[in-house]
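Researcher: For the record, we're logging two predictions in this thread. I'll number them. Prediction 1 follows.
Model: Prediction 1, sequence and structure:
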Amino acid sequence: MFEKLRDRLAKARTNPSLAWALLKTRFRVGPAGGAEVADPAHRSISDDGRYTVFCDRAARSTLAFRTFRRHPDYVPILEHVTRELGQSYVDVLRRWTPHVIDRINDFKVNDLVGGPITHEYEGIGRVNPTTLRYVKVATDLETCFNWTATTAVAEVGIGYGGQLLCADRLLSYGTWTLFDLPPVLRLASRYLESHLLQGSYRLTTLNQSQPASYDIVVSNYAFSELPAAVQRAYLRKVLSRAASGYMTMNSGREGTPFGGDHLCLAEVRRQLPDCEVVEEHPCSAPGNYIVLWGHRSRPQWS
């Protein structure tokens, strides 16, 4: 428990909006919950139990769903990207993928549901900075991989499905498999069913899934925040069976925000021997990096 608290504080140290959200959660009256994750040792370090309980409530309650993306139990996990980091994503998009900036309104659909906090950005109007992160990752995926024959994509740690929704506006794929905990999957289903997708998706937990092959696997920080035992299970059942992958990491090597019970980068490389490491850009926290494998090229900014 001390290690998880330490890691959450480390993550918040460079992010004032996250620090404020964590304070509001810490002193808010109400149950911590976590009934569906019986063993706290299997939780992501970002989850103190409130997150999954709130996901379940937002999936079932119209009132909670309406503004779930600004709730204090949700913001520290998914909606803590600062306005300033959002501007950095805009700058990268403008420089390297202007065709996406020209279509920015196509991606703003991600801000129509859940009541997210938005900011005004010059030349593109109001948009949520987490949405800008998802758009930037989608452009990395477009650059790094061959999408002409991609039929099976997997995502480890899915939030509310925003990465899928933004990627769906840019990329061609068959089925996008979403891996997470049951309450998170329920919320993501409600969210995605509020939109119309070009591709299709399916929901599963790690325990429910049979080992399968994927063309590409994606994870935005989520894999790196899992305890080592869960990481090893994902490596065995999902990651090592994927021809290609893109994972943003905030643990595993010296200088990253999270220490404690996570696989070191050397062990990840042993399981994914053909992977390459590039530095995250823009950098959301000191030491963050991206693990790539099966890619045809690096991101344009690297």
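Researcher: Logged. Prediction 2.
Model: Prediction 2, sequence and structure:
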Amino acid sequence: MSMALARAGKEAIETKTKAHRDAIRTRGYGTHYGDHSNYRPPAGASLTESSCVVWAMECAAYAFEKVGQSAVWNRIAANARRNQLKGTVLIKDLVQAGWTGIYWNPDTTDTSDPEHSYSAHVARRSKTYYKIPVQDYVLDYRRKPRADLTGINKLDKVPFWVGCARGGRHVFCGTGANVSEFHWDYPATNPRAMELVTLKDYAWLSGIIAVPPQVWALASR
């Protein structure tokens, strides 16, 4: 069931991104637009107003519904909405529902921004990220002179996950070692409103992701 949920999340990312881009090609505007853009949908058009967290939750909702766990997701989503859609609330509730909390940081020795080095210290010492339990790590895959690809190679086997950075200020989902994020300031005419970028190249430099139950253990084999 857990791997089925993860595969459904991957399907959500792929099919929804494709539908948006196909719609742009056929009618000139896609299926989603950013809630911080100045875009106004054509009269009578049914489009989704979205943001980084709304996109991640939309893909997660699709996955939970496909495996018959809508009731679980509805509780999680309702609590997220009660808490201003804060990413740490969303991730914490997923972890409490049995998902695996994974702290990620491309270079724990990078002290250019204390947010990242300090969060790495706390994650290792107390096994938490903003009070969310951390059960494993994806670390130092961009560290020089020697990168550690162990964690990110394991992540590449995970079909779907949900994550946040900067204490929940930015939220996203992902498939494998790629991040799927929504740009809240993009109009419906932009095919990159939802974009896939590799975690190795991701500009946000530390955070936590939640992996569906049992999937991380399977990826470790």
